[in-house]
Fold these 2 entries.
Entry 1:
Amino acid sequence: MPAFATDVPAQDIRFDVYRNGSPFGEHIVRFTPLGNGDVDVDIEIELSVRLGPITVFRYEHQAIERWDDDELVLMRSRTFKDGGWLEVDVERGPDGELISLGEMLSDMIPSSHWRGYTPETRTILNTETGEPMPVEVTDLGLRTIETASGPVEARGYRMAGTVTVDLWYDADGRWVGCEFEARGQRISYVLQDA
């Protein structure tokens, strides 16, 4: 079973997101092949909690990644978090190095989760901040994940960084599940159209 997606998934990935078992929002990853091995990956996350007409929590994240086969060419993101917007612009410079916030970065996988990680992964690119983020990845083994279309056997990886996230991938390396705790709330993802 692959530890990460070796090819761009044939279909988009759409999750319903739950907070302590109640609907919380959605997380969508769309893939657009551009030809010659290039692909654009559009990511949209919208989460909110309302009490009557009042929104008491709101999180939004929009990002685009451009990949040339297995190489990240650029990543742009905009995130609404803690009442303000963060914007990130990462591009591969003429010398082949990724550049973020005016600094050169070594190659690393973005924290968008769709490609997956391996236990050898030590640093990823934080898509909210554009900064390198140290992580520790542990193989959780196989488990059956419930999706909207039924159960799927998946391999799990726990990624401990600024947040500890359990991520699940099917036999093709497609991202099929996610669970984590944030601010004392249990967040879980349920894959649609698996």
Entry 2:
Amino acid sequence: MRRPSRAPMPVAKDGPRTNDEIRNAQVQLIDQDGANQGTVETIAAIKMAMDAGMDLVEIAPNSSPPVCKIMDYGKYKFQAQKKAAEARKRQKIVEIKEIKLRPMIDDHDYGVKMKAMQRFFEEGDKVKITLRYRGREMAHQEIGTKLLDKVKADVAAYAKVEQDARFEGRQVVMVLAPR
């Protein structure tokens, strides 16, 4: 029994169709200066683009007839690539930094943690505060609750509570985000 031939799928091109890839009989043409030339035969439009040393690029394929523009396609792709790279460079990835506390933390240690937390907020990162109870500390959870309230009050100027304190087994987790 003969198997049906499986021809390779045509390669899907990213970006608009250009020159000979445009299959419509007529197109709405915009020349290289941006002036509207009206509805023109596709072959004539391609010839005009070749005479100008440029490409015919389909910019609105879903309209009827499709809108095409005479432009330097290589330059257009390069500009789009640069714009995308610039957008990627400008975006900030927000990280979640973690600060671990104990209910009986000393004042100086608390100060060091607060300085680190303030630095994280200035960098635009979120902070996850983990308060861990050990052994008999679970019997005095009000100490940990007071500590977390103190943290909230101390960072209120430059951070807001994104996720309020909640228990996860023997630890309490709270998430703060920069203002």
